[in-house]
Specification:
Helices cover 0% and strands 54% of the residues. By secondary structure, the protein is mainly beta. A hairpin with a 5-residue loop joins β5 and β6.
Length: 119
Amino acid sequence: QVQLVESGGGLVQAGDSLRLSCAASGRTVIMYYMGWFRQAPGKEREFVGRISWSGGSVYYADSVKGRFTISRDNAKNTVYLQMNSLKPEDTAVYYCAASTYSNGGWNYWGQGTQVTVSS
């Protein structure tokens, strides 16, 4: 079992930056990937990006590429989502997820943290 706890959400203005954190606990040794998703009101959950837990390779959705950066601190079992140049359309609940499958598939989720970007 892996437990995930997000933090760092809040209300910011367009153009501001915000950093989200996701602390993992439990059997973190079995994680292959950690990722970020978001869900805006009335919309489906959207993939934001993910990072390989061992190698550190990252992959981003086109909608955030160049503005968002995912990083990890293995010693702290924590993954970060640095969000720059925020836009109102980035407003959503942001979820951290973990995959214990080498070929993907997200089987652990955090509770989510709200990010609101005002114009």
